């Protein structure tokens, strides 16, 4: 559910008509709904009610300061995967004890930053990382709180680029080696074991892979406790999928996911952490573009819009589907046409949709790409020297630009010409 609905023939974000924002900020732009972000965070928080828990928003999905502040004020922790994300979380007012640090390639500089600024736990993904963290913490006279990310070797049944829990993926320590690695960690002066971490992938549309992974984590918890380790916290990762296509079967809801967690792990007496990103942000945002031209090709019609693959890369990168709807509500029963929806970038990969059935569109019309709040703005680039598009946040009947569009000069002036030229 989201807060982008037609009213009086025009798409609104909460109570604000989208054309009003387009007139104020220019197209293309990302547009987010405060109410939807709040609703999605609350769904997860309530799904784990009664369990000692923390919802750590995976901020790589959308890391704008305004979004982080909005979620942090509701009590969210953050899952960060880089020093930059750690700095963003701190800048938004998130205390260190609510930040978990994931990722396979944490550098010593990044670890130092988190140890100095405060950290809830490092999710350690390899033995070399464990050694590096231990060495650093010992030199700093600290104990780094850790969970070890285990790779449970389950098939998340999602797009290959975002599956992370199979043995051949780069993530985590093979679960079969976990006991040996925990024993090693227990002998290190610079680390303190707090629990176990697992994250098997993104855009999961079925609970079964989660169940398989969590049952393996349950067995491991018992074994590690029998080995004498104090396993008091389980970080279960993120990954719950969202409905990208209206009319298709919807993925499981956070309540069902919460029930699964309770059923598989609820009796272990552990604190539960989850790291949802996409489900919190995805349907809380749209990308608004304007049609530049309608071009008649050889047997096809191209809708050329003013946003490109540099602004929203998911279709090019993951063959992802985004519903694309006109901002002016089409008349009921109007005959539909078939378009290839493409951007201006000089690549055939710059195609958002092929053979998409839409109401008849004209140059100048506004269109909205739905479900663009996660892995949209954060993955954007300035390819083809197209400045990063702005982000706008709506709250009821108000809206604010939360990241401005850089001018051409601002974009160009980031380059430096060496003296010798
Ligand atoms: C990407 C990621 C997440 C979030 O995944 P979503 O599918 O956006 O919920 C959570 N944890 C880790 C470690 C990740 O890499």
Outline the structure in words.
The chain has 421 residues and is α/β, with parallel strands linked by helices. It has 2 domains: 159 residues, Lyase, Ornithine Decarboxylase, Chain A, domain 1, CATH 2.40.37.10; 172 residues, Alanine racemase (TIM Barrel). It is 28% helix and 25% strand. The chain has 12 helices and 21 strands. The strands form 3 sheets. Strands 4, 14, 15, 16, 17, 18, 19, 20 and 21 form a 9-stranded mixed sheet that branches. The protein has an 8-stranded parallel barrel with strand order 5-6-7-8-9-11-12-13, surrounded by 5 helices. Strands 1-2-3 form a 3-stranded antiparallel sheet. Helix 2 runs parallel beside helix 9. The site of pyridoxal-5'-phosphate (PLP) has 15 residues, from helix 10.
In short:
Helices cover 28% and strands 25% of the residues. It has 421 residues and is α/β, with parallel strands linked by helices. The strands form 3 sheets. Strands 4, 14, 15, 16, 17, 18, 19, 20 and 21 form a 9-stranded mixed β-sheet that branches. Strands 5-6-7-8-9-11-12-13 form an 8-stranded parallel β-barrel, surrounded by 5 helices.
Short key terms for the protein model shown above:
9-stranded mixed beta sheet; 12 helices; alpha/beta; 8-stranded parallel β-barrel; globular; 421 residues; Lyase, Ornithine Decarboxylase, Chain A, domain 1; single chain; 25% strand
């Amino acid at each position: 559910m989201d807060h982008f609905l037609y009213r009086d023939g025009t798409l609104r974000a909460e109570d604000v008509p989208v054309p009003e924002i387009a007139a104020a900020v220019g197209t293309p732009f990302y547009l987010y709904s405060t109410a939807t972000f709040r609703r999605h965070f609350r769904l997860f928080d309530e799904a784990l009610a009664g369990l000692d828990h923390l919802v750590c928003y995976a901020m790589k999905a959308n890391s704008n300061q305004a979004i982080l502040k909005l979620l942090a004020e509701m009590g969210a922790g953050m899952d960060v995967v880089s020093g930059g994300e750690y700095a963003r979380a701190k800048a938004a007012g998130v205390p260190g004890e609510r930040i978990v640090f994931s990722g396979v390639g944490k550098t010593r500089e990044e670890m130092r930053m988190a140890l100095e600024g405060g950290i809830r736990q490092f999710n350690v993904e390899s033995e070399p990382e464990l050694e590096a963290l231990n060495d650093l913490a010992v030199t700093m006279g600290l104990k780094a709180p850790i969970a070890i990310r285990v790779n449970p070797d389950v098939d998340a049944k999602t797009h290959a680029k975002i599956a992370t829990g199979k043995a051949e993926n780069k993530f985590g320590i093979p679960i079969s080696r976990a006991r040996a690695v925990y024993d090693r960690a227990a002998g290190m002066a610079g680390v303190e074991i707090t629990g176990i971490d697992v994250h098997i992938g993104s855009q999961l549309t079925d609970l079964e892979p989660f169940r398989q992974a969590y049952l393996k984590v349950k067995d491991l918890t018992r074994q590690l406790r029998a080995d004498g380790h104090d396993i008091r916290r389980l970080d279960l990762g993120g990954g719950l999928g969202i409905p990208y296509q209206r009319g298709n079967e919807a993925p499981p809801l956070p309540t069902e996911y919460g029930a699964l967690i309770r059923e598989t792990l609820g009796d272990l007496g552990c604190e539960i952490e989850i790291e949802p990103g996409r489900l919190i942000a995805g349907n809380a945002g749209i990308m608004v573009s304007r049609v530049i031209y309608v071009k008649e090709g050889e047997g096809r019609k191209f809708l050329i819009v003013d946003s490109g693959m540099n602004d929203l890369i998911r279709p090019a990168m993951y063959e992802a589907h985004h519903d694309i709807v006109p901002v002016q509500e089409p008349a009921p029963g109007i005959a539909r046409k078939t378009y290839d929806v493409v951007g201006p970038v000089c690549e055939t990969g710059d195609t958002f949709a092929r053979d998409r059935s839409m109401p008849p569109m004209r140059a100048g019309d506004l269109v909205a790409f739905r479900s663009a709040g996660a892995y949209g703005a954060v993955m954007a680039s300035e390819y083809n020297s197209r400045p990063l598009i702005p982000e706008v946040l709506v709250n009821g009947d108000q809206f604010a630009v939360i990241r401005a569009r850089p001018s051409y000069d601002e974009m160009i002036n980031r380059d430096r010409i060496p003296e010798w030229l």
